[in-house]
Amino acid sequence: VPPEERFKALGSVPWQGKVALGAFVSGDGVHWRALQAEPVITSGAFDSQNVAFWSEHEGCYLSYFRTWAGAADPTEFKGVRTISRMRSDDFVHWDGFEWMDYGPTPPEELYTNATAPYPRAPHLYLAFPKRFNPGRRTLRPDEVERFGVVPAYAGDVSDGVFMSSRGGNRYTRTFMEAFLRPGRDRANWVSRTNLCALGLVQTAPDELSLYYQHRYAQPGHYLARYTVRLDGFASLWGPYRGGEMLSRPLTFSGSRLVLNYATSGAGSVRIELQDAAGHPLPGYSLDDAMDLFGDEIERPYTWRGGDDLTALAGQALRLRVVLRDADLFSLRFAPADNATPPKP
User: Fold this and answer.
1) For the chain, percent helix, then strand, then coil, each to nearest 5?
2) Which of 311, 243, 248 is nearest to 281 (CA)?
3) Do 289 and 269 contact (CB within 8 A), yes or no?
4) How confident is the model at residue 278 (pLDDT cuts 50, 70, 90)?
5) Per-residue confidence at 343, pLDDT binned at 50, 70, 90?
6) What pTM does this model have?
7) CB-based contacts of 275: which residues, under 8 Å, 6+ apart?
8) Which of 33, 140, 262, 284 could form a Cys-Cys staple with 273, CB 3.0–4.6 A?
C-alpha cells in the first residue's frame, strides 16, 4: 500500500440518521484522514468496539462488529447482542456479511469482541468479548451513591470471556466460564464494565499483557493491565491422581517437540507417540518418555533415544499426553536449530 496509508482504521461516522463505519488512513499512526467521503460499512450497530485487521490466514481485511440477533435489520437495537463480520480486499469495498456462529452453546449477550490474530500463531484469532448480563443487580442503593455510579448503569453486571476462531464465521467457545470476573471490588459489579481493549502486548519474554476497563459510569473509571504467561490463555490440566489426553492423528514438520508447561514439585508431564491406529512407536512409548517436571515456556521434550523426531516428520501419528498435577499450555513441533520462535 502507499506509505501514507500504512495504518488503517474504521471509525463511527453519521449516515442517514444512523451511525456507519468510515475508513481512515495514516502514514504515521498519529495524523489521520478519511479514505473517502462515504462510509464503507453500513450494516451493524456501531456504538461500541469496531475491530478491523488484515488476516494473513484468509488473505483479506476483516471487520468484526456488534449486531443484534433476532432483528430483521442488524442495525436495529432489538433482540440479543451478538457479533458479525465482513471482508474486504481493499478496505473500501466490504462484502460477505456473516453472522458469527458459536457452536452448540447457549446464547449470551456479547457486547464487544476484541477479536485479533494471535501474533505467535496468526491463523488463530483470539477474542475477549464483554459478556453483558442485564438485570443482574448486586449493588445496594447506598453503594451506588457512595461509588458515584450513574443510576442507569447500576442494575446489570458484565464480565470478560474468551473465544477463538480459525477464520470463517465460527467462534469456538470451549470455555463458557468467565476469563475475567468482576472481582472483589464492589464498584466493578456494574453494567458495561470489564471491557477488554483491543490487542495483546508482549511485555516480557514470558509474559503477555491485556488491558481491561473497570468501574464504568463512575468518577473512578480506569484501565488496568492484566498479565498471562506466553501462550497461557488455557491449559490441558491433570490432577494429582493423573489424567490423559489422546490427540487426533496428525502430521508435522520439524524435528523437535517443544512444550510450554508447569507442574508442582510432585507433578509430571509424559508423552507417548503412537501410530494412527494407537500403537506406541518403538523408542517413543510411555516407558521411554522423560518424566518432565518444572515450569518452562519453551522446553524440548526428550525420550530415551533423544529428542530428534526428523524421521517421523510427515507420518500420521497420535500424541498420548499423561499429566499429574500439571498444566500443558501449548505444544509445537520446531526445527532443531530454532526451538524458540521469533518474537511477535
Assistant:
1) 5, 45, 50
2) 311
3) no
4) very high
5) very low
6) 0.91
7) 281, 315, 316, 317, 318
8) 284
